[in-house]
Design goal:
68 residues, mainly alpha, two-stranded antiparallel ribbon, 4 helices, 46% helix, globular, binds zinc ion
């Protein structure tokens, strides 16, 4: 099975579980998010932990949060 890295958290995501997470309504199409990122759980966790986040990773997660 082919796996890609989730653009929001860099965990491997298998195609069969990411097919429903195509998000293209925002300024930046986001493909292949894991379930946690698609639901916004990852962004909430990062904010609660108050840890530095890679700017590109944050942009992906905030795009998802804006359209979810
Ligand atoms: Zn993720």
């Amino acid at each position: 099975m082919k796996a890609t890295l989730c653009p929001g958290c860099y965990r491997p995501v298998y195609e069969s579980s990411s097919s429903h997470t195509l998000i293209g309504a925002g300024p930046m199409p986001v493909i292949g998010l894991c379930r946690l990122c698609a639901e916004g759980t990852t962004l909430r966790s990062l904010r609660q932990a108050d840890v530095p986040v890679d700017p590109q990773q944050r942009a992906v997660l905030e795009t998802v949060a804006a359209v979810a």
